[in-house]
Amino acid sequence: MKTALVIGASRGIGREISLTLSRNGFNVCVAAKTTDESKQLPGTIYSVSKEIQDLGGSALPVKCNVRDMTEVKNTVKTCMDKFGGIDVAVYNAGSIFWEKVCRTPLKRFDLMLDVNLRGSYSMVEELLPVYQEQKSGKFIMVSPPIYSRFFEGKTPYSISKIGVSILTQGLAKELKDTGISITSLWPATGIKSHVTDVNHIEQKLLRKATIVADACLRIAQERSGKLNGKCLIDEDFLRSEGVTDFTQYRCDPRFEPPRMMPAEFPSLKVKEEGDSFKVFSKL
């Protein structure tokens, strides 16, 4: 039986990914910072683990504040001790603040860098030796393809998220032909979550988190390595896998939510892509 570590799993997309992976035969380590439920933050690692267990699955709740490397280390160790290994690691922890530079205090910027970028890097750093020893493993990161319009009106947040996408594309080159892969995933439309509820976003503008979870499951099950280094969009990836009916994902059955992401993305490759760059190799 395979094991998945999901960091940022106490609600929303992370919760749905955890449930979907469990339903499809994975042990799930449910990791997140939230251990006590409140009106401000509904859902905890314990409530999600109980949902999985009530469905007959195997779940392990672990407290993980991604700003604390000690807790990241403990999360990986606890999961390994319980299940004997980790096959898939999903990084879904996130700090969201969509504002312009002039309206984003340094303290808030630091928080987004810590949670979105540094936290994802810490998970990779801790798990990579494990994957290298077992010669297999998948990293799935929640981050977008890289394109300029994404930065508009939310540049500080974009820096923290695009950094994760750079990690995906850069690390993928190091992982080629190792049996290990890293893939990023991002939704095409708005996704219903606690944040959208608090901000009273109309249901007709949103999809259920199940669409991201279904795409994540297919990435987790992919064996060829063809997704290594890819920054995927949930709808586009599912269409490439043969899915044609997306009505099941609508929050309001009467409306298809508008797409926020571009239909096509620019290639970041240059004509010198395959050339060896050794000028600073000894530094």
From TrEMBL:
Name the record gives this protein: Hydroxysteroid dehydrogenase-like protein 2
UniProt entry keywords in alphabetical sequence: Oxidoreductase
Origin species: Lottia gigantea (Giant owl limpet)
GO molecular function (one): oxidoreductase activity
UniProt cross-references to InterPro entries, sorted A to Z: HSDL2, NAD(P)-bd_dom_sf, Sc_DH/Rdtase_CS, SDR_fam
